[in-house]
Every structure is written in structure tokens, then in C-alpha cells.
What does this fold into?
Amino acid sequence: MTSELDIFVGNTTLIDEDVYRLWLDGYSVTDAVALRVRSGILEQTGATAAVLQSDTMDHYRTFHMLERLLHAPPKLLHQLIFQIPPSRQALLIERYYAFDEAFVREVLGKKLSKGTKKDLDDISTKTGITLKSCRRQFDNFKRVFKVVEEMRGSLVDNIQQHFLLSDRLARDYAAIVFFANNRFETGKKKLQYLSFGDFAFCAELMIQNWTLGADLKELKVLVADKDLLDLHKSLVCTALRGKLGVFSEMEANFKNLSRGLVNVAAKLTHNKDVRDLFVDLVEKFVEPCRSDHWPLSDVRFFLNQYSASVHSLDGFRHQALWDRYMGTLRGCLLRLYHD
Amino acid sequence: MPGKLKVKIVAGRHLPVMDRASDLTDAFVEVKFGNTTFKTDVYLKSLNPQWNSEWFKFEVDDEDLQDEPLQITVLDHDTYSANDAIGKVYIDIDPLLYSEAATVISGWFPIYDTIHGIRGEINVVVKVDLFNDLNRFRQSSCGVKFFCTTSIPKCYRAVIIHGFVEELVVNEDPEYQWIDRIRTPRASNEARQRLISLMSGELQRKIGLKVLEMRGNAVVGYLQCFDLEGESGLVVRAIGTACTLDKLSSPAAFLPACNSPSKEMKEIPFNEDPNPNTHSSGPSTPLKNQTYSFSPSKSYSRQSSSSDTDLSLTPKTGMGSGSAGKEGGPFKALLRQQTQSALEQREFPFFTLTAFPPGFLVHVGGVVSARSVKLLDRIHNPDEPETRDAWWAEIRQEIKSHAKALGCHAVVGYSESTSICEEVCILSASGTAAVLNPRFLQDGTVEGCLEQRLEENLPTRCGFCHIPYDELNMPFPAHLTYCYNCRKQKVPDVLFTTIDLPTDATVIGKGCLIQARLCRLKKKAQAEANATAISNLLPFMEYEVHTQLMNKLKLKGMNALFGLRIQITVGENMLMGLASATGVYLAALPTPGGIQIAGKTPNDGSYEQHISHMQKKINDTIAKNKELYEINPPEISEEIIGSPIPEPRQRSRLLRSQSESSDEVTELDLSHGKKDAFVLEIDDTDAMEDVHSLLTDVPPPSGFYSCNTEIMPGINNWTSEIQMFTSVRVIRLSSLNLTNQALNKNFNDLCENLLKSLYFKLRSMIPCCLCHVNFTVSLPEDELIQVTVTAVAITFDKNQALQTTKTPVEKSLQRASTDNEELLQFPLELCSDSLPSHPFPPAKEHLESASSNSGIPAAQRAMTVEKASPVGDGNFRNRSAPPCANSTVGVVKMTPLSFIPGAKITKYLGIINMFFIRETTSLREEGGVSGFLHAFIAEVFAMVRAHVAALGGNAVVSYIMKQCVFMENPNKNQAQCLINVSGDAVVFVRESDLEVVSSQQPTTNCQSSCTEGEVTT
It folds into this structure.
């Protein structure tokens, strides 16, 4: 006796959160059944393995049918085929678009292209996330990217409107889209210590405060003009003397640090060089400070003073531009400065 | 030209991409009714076209309005080639044809294609202007209301229950008009869908005409079925119960108006139970009367009219009235005569109802059924309905005479079904023989004196259990005892019925679903030989099904079955029998004896041991079941055999003295006999198997109950959480050495596993009851068995359910579910403000029910809420709102029950009767057979919901999937499925919402007086 056909259709579509989790994680029905058995569900409910198999198959089929709609979440809300309470709809969408930290760190800043998709095998091996789940997450990134790529207006709002994600998740996707668009390098070894949260934090600051095409080259004068550089240094040193544990290290390193920070600005004008932003920030600022064992509070003191002192430089005429640049950069650096 | 149909096509959305180049669609719409077609403009390059068409107007006869569906076809415009059809929507406009139902159909309908399924949605508005019809000889029956519900619908009152109406229409099946090579699946499917839609409309119209002839205004318990006979044609047949209904929802008809007699009816003060003492006794066996007739090639040309088969069997007053008993005397004879005369005028005194207004059902005799095997290729004139009419008339006649043998003049809970395999067709009919109260059947027959006599008698709740037949002339052997409730009348030891448990019946503990399952192999044969083989097998199957039911009932420690439905399915090489019923312990019936196993070879020691082991197992199971279902009848008589029948719990005050009288005792002893001796003789391995299989049925996991009746006896405190579902399973039998035993085991496992899966899937709803569990079996191919289950899971409040004694709260809750029935029976008592003293002082129980919270205030609230009711298409459109945890917009509930727990039905919008075909030629790509059918059933649900929402409703009650015919051809990567569903579209309002609304309203006199009543009772 074999079951040829075995289905269950409810007027309200039954969603089992645990099975949804397993499905999203890319487990096959067989694996999912095994995992459910291990969870002790048979003992709790007195069900048989056959019942569990049938139930899992059924849920998988439902999810498979829902997947098409999840690709365009507003469709899930308007469709008439599956009657799903709104709270459940929101859960389905949110979980579908959720991603794994390990996965996103691998893909962040990469071009969301077929080439990258071919690498998913390796990513799967490396992260231990099933290939199926990697594909779903990658396709989600790509789908969101494609939809909002050409849109005007707030990135977060656009994502929220077209994918009905929670605020938190929409912000994360905005960061992913922003990184993919600018192709920021995030995979280098020296950047490995950074989490997706660190990058997303920076992305949000940059999206909010920076616009393309601002003439950041104008800032270069701060390091190119020797007098200005010296004056800047003395202003900072005067203000921080006695207040900084690492004062002497700062004093010795000031010009290097300042050059690093200002050159980053200059590089932002070239699309090609933008990709190295985080590499530069870590190489030119984070690493030198860290090797001198600056405490975070000293970094904050320094960056505040470094950024504020420019206001007293009479020969410098791009105060507003500087503030916008440094305001964001300071925020990013403080976030990136950890072990 | 009595009607104008107006249609407006507003917009479409989510259309499929029809032009690969642009990824867009140039859509337009054809609107067709009868032979007239209108078209919208082409809306270029959009998947969400906004047509905003003018009003397309069709001027039509109301006959056409009833028969024809409105056909809306969405197409993709193509300049250079033929336009591609995207899909269709069929809209049944019948709900617009009677004033109380929907006034407009407006909403988003799924666009359906038989090959691709749902492809987007279309927004349509439909209205009908009806002109007064002056033609008395009209062919239409506009205005007759149809209900699938098998009880008097809530918010209506039954003035008269006229009786049985039936009709069938025949047509050639378009599927068989096509030569396979030429036929395109789409064309053939659509032709069939359209034809069945047309035939349903015609059938409904014809039934409506019969109702009008009977001076009724509604059909309740309307059951329409299709017989896909194959080459001999396609039959659509329907049965129902004609009634004259009065609407209750308008407050005016309710409050002051209720002391003036409404309409032509004499307002008969309602009186609970006419007379429990009217009949003397007789025996009862639950299920005895079957017939197996086989008439392969007779021609039935004698009938000219399609269904008015006059079989001139005048009901004799025979058995029943002849035995007018001791206490009943002349009065009883009078009652019987009147009933008889009321029913005699009817050709078939059948009622498709399964639940009745209180007092309607006087006695129940038992289940009557009849089956007959026919050969479809022997129909002489297959295009005409005569032959089938004659077949059914024959069966109905059988049923009628069986009922008479049980001393009954009527059959309630009546239904008909067929099973077809190739050219063989089994026709089945079954029902419950009953004695009815004539008052509902005809106006004017009830004399004043009778009324008075009736009132003198104390109402009891056990009357329906009392045997209607003659004790001395029992149709079959049965053990009779005096009723454990009133002790005056005889009751059988076991009662089988096809109806719902009467709401006033006293039940001990809870009920449970009981199934008998059986397979019988049969040789493949042709024509007559085949039919004869089947005819020969049927009696054995019936007998075994009956024995299984009886054994399982005893194993549960229960004594009555309700909602019994026996389905016999015929296949190429086997017959399947599946009986489902809800077992209960009726307080009025004696405690069932256990099951005794008797071995055949008493000298064999190990065998003996085995037997005693089995016996112990059975006894343990019975004990366990009694505990599980809380069956604790007061002081079981088993320990004190020969002593008086113990006092039934609860309502014993009045009867106590009688029960102690010694006369009763002696009489009881005599009749008590040896009711314990239910012996199962194990004389061969088969019998052993049977006993084993008895014990394999696993009870539902803790927290679950199940029944196939409307509500679970013993559970009253339902919450509003419901989940209706359909589950389908098909298994393939290994064809090697199939034996009856192996088959039985396979079938049994299939059903048990299916139930287990349901319990597992719905575990989050615990404590929960599966209600109205409806199993259907079909044999689509040689080695395939298909089981389809539709049911509703309802969560109940555990804390209250644990109490076995009825608290007032529980009582009122119970009333809530049956409120309208009671409500509509006590209009006079209700208007206490206008009538200082009741002209007809009701019995205590009446008062109680009339004043329970679900009585007047709710009905009164109904109108206040109707305005505020958050339903309708506006609501439906709100689906587009962003998700929000607490919004419940656009939800359409579906349930096979006639009510929605925790809610009040305020309006019936019309019948939903839909037929769909789905076919695929890419079965693998659609996820195999499971993926294909899963999607299709989900689509069917969606289309039902969309139609209900467009009518302005928010639920379908009495929903039923009447057919689910699935065929596959995996080798060709093809599958096809036909589904037929029906139900009543309604508007409901949550009781909690009602209370909020009503508390905001100024309290009226009546309301406050009712509230007081509630407190005091």
C-alpha cells in the first residue's frame, strides 16, 4: 500500500512555524522529518513517523505554492487563493526575507550577478548553510536590488513599500543594496573582524548623509597645504593635551592619520576607488590606532577634536562639506573601532 | 420580459503575462448571458487593466435568469491571430432574484481557466431589476429561496413544512461528444462546466415551481448531485424539503407584531412535545430494511411526467394505528389519523431535514434504506429522464414501505446517492423512519381540542426514543425495555438514525465518531453478470457493516447512533462500504451490555486462554472508553439485575414515585430479558480478524473529539475558532494476491491514518472537536482507493467542558447554538411588555429558553447590527490594506455546519452551487498529483469565498464538497479533476460585537425584562 496522493487544504492556510523554518533553511523533506523526530515531537503528540512525513510534505507543498507570492509580497496580501490572517502573512514575509549573518558577510558588497551565484556552492560549504537556503537569500538580495535600483526616494521606504518588511529588516536590505551598488570590498582578511551590523550601521549613516557628486576633492587642501596641516595639528594637540591617554602616540601619528582620513574623501569621488572605503578606513585609521592601543574613548575625543578644529582654520572654506563628511565618518569609525 | 440584468466590468489585476515580448497583456472582456454578448474595450499593455465599462444591459425572461449563468471571459487581444482566452468567471445570479437576499453582486472574482487554474482577478458589479410578473402560468420560480442547510435556517421560522420535492434533468455529456483526437481539453471542460451550470439552474427552477405548487416559499435541505453516467449522459438531480418560511430578522415582525397572527397562518401557540404517551410500544432494530433489486434492462416507459410517479400505494394505517396502545387510547389514534391524513396526500412523506423544530419529531423508528443495481447501457431513451425517474421512484417506494413496517408514516434525514463504475450504477437511499407531529405539516388540520390535549401532557425529552411500532408484532426481534427516562413507554436497546441528535435529548457523557469499513472483492464481469454479482454481495456488506457498527458502538459503551451514513462504492473488482455515525449514550435507552466472546473449541486450553485474553482486552477497552467519553450513567443496573430501572439522573422529580411502583418493576423484569448477551462467536479466523480489527481503532489523542453530526453531544462551549478543511488521500493497492482481509486492513489503515494526520495537523487547536466529519470513498481505478474528508475543527473552552453537569452558563451557551429554533417557536411569550400576562403560560422550560440571552435581545440586535456590520464588498476590498495584526478584513469563513459558533447569522444571501473542472497536461511540473489537487482545492475554496464576499457575505454555512472526481494518467503526464461544492452564503455577526452594539443602544423594555428572566432561571 503506497500513498499516491495525500493532501490537506484548510480554509485558513495552516502554517507551521517550525516546518517553515526547516523549509527556509533548505532541508529536504527527509532531513526535515528527521530533525522533527529528533525534536521529540512524536513523543509529545503520539504521532507516527508516517504522519510526520505526510504533514511535512504537505507543509512543504504549501510553502512551495506560497513562494511565488512571496517574491512579490504585496501579491500575498491581495491574492485570494490562500486565506491567511494578516499577522501570519507578515510572519511569512519577514521570515522569508530574513538572512543568515554568515551568508550576508560572504556576499555583502559583491555584484549580485550570475557569477556570484556560481560561488554559492563554496559559500554553502564554508558557512554550513544549505545551498538551497543560500540561493533563496541570494535571490532575495538580487530581487530587492532589482526592484529598488532605479527608484527615486528613500531606499528604506521603497523597500518597505514593495516588500512589506519590518523597519529593521528593510534597513538591513537598504544596506545590502547600498553595498551591492557601490561594490564595497568587505571580504578582505583585515575586514573579517567586522560584522554585518557594523557595515549596515555605516551604510545607514552614509545613505542618510552623503550624496554622490559632492566635491570632496576640495578637502584635500587640509593635508596638501603644509601650513594648514601643521595648524590643524597644533589646534588638536592643544585642545587634547592632558586629556588623552595616548597623546604622544596621537601627536606622532597625527599627520598620517589626517592624510588617511582626507585621502579617503578624495578617493570617494572615483567610483573605482570607492570600493576600498572600508579597507582604507581600517588600514589608515583603525589599525594604526589599534596598534598603539588607543582606547575607544580616546578615539572619540580625538575624532571630535579633529573634526571641530577645522572650524578654526581661517584658510579653509569648505566647513559645511567637512562637517557632513566627518560627521558620518566619525560615526563609522567609532563603530568600526573594535577588536 | 420581466427582468433586466446589468453588468459592469470595473478592473482586473494580477493578470498573467500574455505577450512574452513586452511582458504585458492587452486584455478585454466578453460578457455573455444567454445568446447576447457584450465586449469591453481593449486595455492595452497592462496586467492591471482599468476598464470601467458602461453598464451592459441584458433584457431577459426570468426563466433565463434562473437557468443561465452570467459568463465573463477575459481575453488577450491579438491583432494578427485569434485572441487568447485568459480565463472565465461564471456568476450564478440566482441570489439576486429574491428580495431578502443579496441586492448586488460586486467584488473581485478569480479568473479561472480549466488548464491553468486561477489567473488573476476581475472586479465585476452585477444587478438585476425585476419587473412584476403578471403571467400566472409562468415557468419561472423566482423568489423561492433555496437552502442547503438541513434544518430550519436561523432567522427564519417554519410556518409549514410541506415535504419532499425532487427533480432530475438529463443531458448528453459533452465530454463524450468529442472524439479524443479532436477534442481540446479546454473546450470540452468549458462545455461541461457551462452545461452543468445551466442544468443546475434549470433544476432549481423546476424544483422552485413544485414548491410554488405546494404553496411553499422555500426549499430547505436542498441537495443537488451529478451523476456522470458516461455515454448514457449526465444527470443532475436534486432533492429537498419544501417549506413556508417566515423571516424573523426584522424587529417589527418580532416584537409588537408577534401578538397579531402573522399572515395567513393561525398563530398556534407552540407546545414543546405533543404527547409522549401517544403511542404504545413495539420493537426497534436500528437498521434492517434494505432491498436489493436488480433490473438490468426493463424499460420504464409507463411514466410520462418526469417525476410525478404515482405509485398509488395508499398508506394503510396498518401496524401503527392498529396497535394503538393502552394509555394512548383514542387520542393517540386521533393524532395518528391526522398525521396520516396530512402525509397521505404526499407521494413520498420524506424530509431531507436532519434537525427539527422542537416537537416536530414524535418518535423515531430506525434507519430505513434501499439500494438497487442498474445497468446504464440499458436505458432505452437515455436523453429523457423517465428511466431514472422510475428507478428513483422504485427506491423511494421501498423506503416508504420500510418506514411503514416500522410503524412510521414519514422518513426524516432522507438522502439519496449513487455510485457508478462503467455501466453499473448503484442507487441508494436512506433515512430515518419517524412519526411526526402533524401541526407543522399542514395548516388548518389541528383542532383546538387536540391542542388542549397536547398541552395537558408533560413535555419530556425522551419521546423520540419511544418505539412507534407494535410490540406484539415487531418487524424484527429486538430487546425492549421501559424508557429509562419516563418509564412509561418502551424503548429499544439500541437506536440508529440518520438525523442529528435532537437538541432536547438527554445524553450522558460525550459522543464520538464511529466508522465501519469494509471491502469485498468481486470478479470483473460484464453487464448482467456484473450487476448480479454486485446485487448478491450487497446484503452481505450491509449485514457486516451493521455488525461492525453495533460492535464498535458497544465497545464505546454507547447505545445510539446519529447521522448514520452508509456509502457503498462500486469498482471494477471490488465493493467498498463505509459507514460513519456519531455514537452517543442516550439517557432514555438502557445501558448497553458488553461484548462476550465465545470460542468454538472449548477444550483447547491455549485457545481458551487466548479467548479470555481477548475478552479481557475488550472489557478493558469498554471501561477505558467509558472513562474517556465520560459515560457515567447513574447507578448501573448491571449489579442489580432484576431490580427496578435506576433513576435517570437530572429530571427525576416528577417521575420518582412512579418508578418505585412495583408494577413497573415486574414489567421491567420481563422485558429486560438478557440484554447483556451480545455474543461474538469466534468460529473461524475471519471472526478473529474482526475482533482484532475492532481493537485497532485508536481513540483520538487527548483533547480531541470527533463526530459526524452538527455538534458534538456533550460539548456546548465552543469558541469562535474554526477551521474547515478538505483532505484527500489515494492509495495504490499492491495487486498481488489481494484478499478480503488484506483489503480490509488497507482500507482500515487508510482511514485511521488519515484521521491520525488530521489530529496531528490540528493539534494547535486543542481542546478541539472535529465536527461534521464527512468521509467519501471512491475507486477511481482498479487498484486505487480514494478517500475524501471534509470537516470543521472547532476549539472549545476546556474548563467548562470538564463539567459534566449543566451549569446555567452552559445551558445558555447551548441555547445559543440552537437559539433561533427556539426563538421562532415562542413569539408570543417573548413580548412580555405588551402582554402583561401570557395568554399561553409556557412550561418552565419554555420560559427558560425564551428568556435566555440568545432569545429576543439577539434578534433585536440583529437589525441594529446589520447597519454596523463590517461586511460587504467594501470590506473585501480592504484586503489591500497593509498587514496589521488585528485586522480581520475580507475573511470568509467556511463550515459544513449550519451555524457559526459564537456568532449570529443575520442574513441568508443565497445558495452557492459551483462546479469546476481542472485539467493538466504537465502533471510533474505542477508538483505531481498532490501538487495538482492541492492547488485545485485551494482554488475552489478561493472561488467560493470570492463569490460569497461579492454577495456581501462573510461566511458559507452547510458547506459540502459533493463530488471530487480525480483521474490521472501519469504516463501521459496528465490529470483531471471535477469538483462540485455547495453551501449557503450568509452574513454573520459576532456575538461579542452584538453585545457591544446593543449595550450602546438604549435598552428597551423588552430587553430588560429578558435580561431579568435570564438571571432568575
Remarks:
- The mean pLDDT of chain A is 90.
